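Take a look at the protein record below and flag anything odd:
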Amino acid sequence: MPSSNTPSRKLIGLLAFVVLLIVYGSLYPWEFEPLRGTDPFTILLHSWNLKLDRFILRDIAVNIMLYLPFGFIAYLVFHRPRRRITPILLAGFIGSVLSFILELTQAFEPARFSSLVDVSTNTIGACAGAIAARLAEAYLGPFGLRTPARTLRDASAVALLGSFVASLLFPFFPISGRTALRMKVAAMLHGPVLDPLLLFSALSSWYAVGLMMRAAGFRKARISMALALAPLLIQLFVIRHEPWIAIILGAIAGALLASALPQAAPAATLITLMIVVRGVRPWHFASSAQPFLWIPFGGFLGMDWATGITLIFQKIFYYGAAIWLLRTAGIRLRTATASITLVLACVEAIQRFIPAHTPEITDPILALMLGFGIAALNPSRRREIRSRG
């Protein structure tokens, strides 16, 4: 955040990017048909059908998570000194208007369903994101350069940490009963212990997490390690997640490495190498190339919603962490963003010959967007170095 009371142009641009993504995902695949004998307002006003079960609760979680980033960034855009509630109310109001317009538009798309429940949950998500930003500033201190250099907070590190936690715990639904817990524990004990890919992925991820927690304001090593490893314990009680022993071992090693070697350059090298390894595994190549998908985020929007959202949060953290670490190591943000984008483009080109993967344009575009987001959430490198110095 800039030190002035007005938000930076980059931060406003980041909010516009998030709005465009919401519009793009809400109206995909953009195939509209005219309505006959009714109008979108009538359809929407008669769409309140809330029957609480496990499926509707999952849909509610998706709608809330979709607008959380919007609310978080909107709070930073509208935040002013001594105004705590107004930015939250503005984020919720704008989120509700945006959701209402999109739900009306979805009435013209056969593959979509207009729903007042979605409007309500999207509004809750926008307010929750704004409240999360408010709590982050309350407990970690103001972001950007509004505070002395010794207490400088990194807003992009906080955002990436939030994406990391979301990738580990989404959809945040607890398991049901002791039987499910026993089955999870049994699966964990019989799961992979020394799987090289899981160990390496966890080590590099928690190494980056440890450095980000320092930048976010968590200075005490023991508390930081406990907070970093807490999601793995919580996974035992959350559906769709398994805390494998290999991941636990790798996470502990990464957290210890972040404490013993708090340097961004080796962490950036490890997580970039991990991205490449995960992108080209299982190293089984075909003789002919498969088609390349040029529709951004088409793969995510076409898969199971829970898997897609978890995967997008995971990739946001991986690619954002690589860019953030390169920048923290002293490389210009533009160069860091371009480097990771080029790496991902090369991986996608290789994936054309790996049948286990779907090559698409999404990952390089996501890296470019994350680079812009890091620039919007943080001061310029020169000002940050001057403040820290």
